[in-house]
Amino acid sequence: MSRLKKKICLVGAYAVGKTSLIRQYVEGIFLDHYLTTIGVKIDQKVLDTGDGREIQLMIWDLEGRDEFHRVRREYLRGAAGFLAVADGTRRETMAQVVEEIEAIRSEHPAMPCLLMINKADLESCWEVGPDEIASLEGRFPVLKTSARRAMGVEEAFRSLARMILAGTEPRPA
Amino acid sequence: MNHEEGPPWLPAVLEGLGVAVLERLPERGGYRSLGILPDWFTEEFGSVGEGFPGEIPFLQDFVENAAEACWLSGTRSCQSSGLWTEPGGGAYEARAIAGDGRELLTIERCGERLLREQGYIQRLHEDALEKRRLAKEVEKKEILLDCIVHDLSGPLATILMNLQHVSRQMERQDLREGLERAIGQAERQRALIRCIGEVFALDLPAPLLSKALRGDNDGVSLQSLARQLASAHEAGARERGIMIRVSGSDGWVAGEPGQAARILENLLVNALRYSPEGGIIEIDVEEREDTVGLEVRDEGPGVPVDLRGKLFRPYAKSGSNGGQAGLGLYFCHLVITLWGGSIAYADRPGGGACFRISLPGTQPSAKEGRP
Asked: What is the pTM of this model?
């Protein structure tokens, strides 16, 4: 079985759940305690694409954006794709991550990306409405996820891997 | 290490610092270490032989991009990778250094630095999240309060309008008096609802408060207000044999008359509630150098000792105050504090309660003039 090695990055504001999503995806666990990421945290997981190929995903968990610190976009160099993460319970993280997506795409127009709106287990407390999500779905793939409940996590990484393998991002429905 | 590679003491310094210093060898490919590699490096990254740093994805990425740009710059320069954490949990920082035709790569273990920075940033993030949560909580409560005030006030307006209409058509004096009492109670209820709304609004920063709640108004005479209120409550007091006496000086203070009246009314109604039949309520106003003092004294049982410490906090009430919300004294405290004054409780000599307020004094407004 052939194995490709691909670098992917996770970007988004602080405390949206990037590290928890990776931990859920790689180790299948969720820790309730918030521990902020400093710099870059590297993880890896081999993904069976189901067509006789394997992808070794090198997952770069980038320090979350806050008022003092912006994402170091040079870390995106060499990435095959990226997952942008927002927290549905914090409206401002959506605007920040959409701005981040646009900025990354201006430097890497062909780089596949997927927006994860995390904390779907708290959907009743979301500050992001269906209309807003629908308007974003016309621009890039969007998935509701929950690191706590393992909802949509595997699907998000698989979808990005498929886009990377396809070489092009599928047209949004 | 020969002379060309640096002074003889350099290996000892590098070993002491615990930093791995490597030199890239473009002509041969690969790297060589300058000095002895620290133990942690060989344990965690192995050797720097062929293939290095292929098994360390972050470092490989750094070497191929940022470090390469630094080395090719042709000038003396240094480029940091920033902190990174390996899957095993080790934290590191790499630096590419170019100079004198050499391409150097240093790698430093940064576990302690990571923990230090993490602790600091984490506190900032947690504080910001908590601040956001509290702001949301306040916003929700304000919306809920607006709804409650609105829903309670709506039916009252209709009740008042209809009572007033019936009262105007009513010819029997005794029935009309009954209606007037009902109107009076409904108006008091409306004032109470407004008071509850304003008590919560008082938590806003001073610049956001309505002018009525700030202290920069024309001013008001406390004695004049006290006489008006005593007169308004005279009939009810007389039915219970209670006498209300107002004495002292004019006592001009820099407050809005409507709010000042509500402060005095709260204190007077409180005294009436606890006064025994045949008791005396005294309201005394005293002008001091820059302040005006006012005392409301009654001959009731006084405030229980266990209630005194929280008397001016919201919802403070004893078991015997007839289902009152416990916001009246809190309202007094908030407004008086906003106006730069103070309110306190003391036992009345000879038995009973004595509420003392002190407010900054002012001159009578030109509009009002001294009576």
From this structure: 0.63
B210 neighbors B181 (Cβ within 8 angstroms)? no
Q: What residues of chain B lie within 8 A of the CB of A93, using their CB?
A: none
CA–CA gap between residue B295 and residue B291 (Å, rounded): 13
Distance (Å) from the C-alpha of residue B70 to the closest C-alpha of chain A? 14
Other beta carbons within 10 Å of A172: 11
pLDDT above 70 covers a percentage of chain A that reads 95
The amino acid sitting at A130 is P
Half-sphere exposure at residue B248, Cβ-oriented, CA atoms within 13 angstroms:
24
The answer to whether B219 and B364 are in contact (CB under 8 A) is yes
Distance CA A13, CA A71 (A): 9
Distance, in angstroms, between A36 CA and closest chain B CA?
6
Residue B142 CB neighbours (<10 A): 15
Q: Does A60 contact B64 at a Cβ distance shorter than 8 Å? A: no
Sign of the torsion formed by the C-alpha atoms of B195, B199, B201 and B202: positive
Contact between chains at B83 and A40 (C-beta distance less than 8 A): yes
Q: Is the CB of A36 less than 8 angstroms away from the CB of B118?
A: yes
Task: Convert the pLDDT of each residue in A9-37 to its tens digit.
Answer: 999 999 999 999 999 999 999 998 889 99
Per-residue pLDDT tens over the stretch B84-130: 999 888 999 999 999 888 899 999 999 999 999 999 999 999 999 99
Nearest CA in chain A to B82: A39
Among all chains, which residue has been given the structure tokens 């993030």? B125
**DSSP 8-state secondary structure symbol assigned to residue B38:** P
10 Å CB burial of residue B157 (0-12, 13-18, 19+) is exposed
- CB pair distance less than 8 Å for A40 and B85: yes
Residue with tokens 């209120």: B229
Q: Which two tokens stand for residue B257?
A: 């008359």
**CA dihedral sign of residues A120, A124, A125, A129:** positive
Contact A39 B91 (CB under 8 A): yes
User: CA B202 to CA B335: how far, in whole Å?
Assistant: 8
Note whether B350 and B364 are within 8 A (CB): no
How many contacts does A have with B, using Cβ atoms within 8 A?
62
From B90, which residue of chain A is nearest by alpha-carbon distance? A41
How close B84 comes to chain A (CA, Å)? 5
Whether residue B250 contacts residue B223, with contact meaning beta carbons closer than 8 Å, is answered with yes
Round to whole Å and give the CA distance between B260 and B254.
10
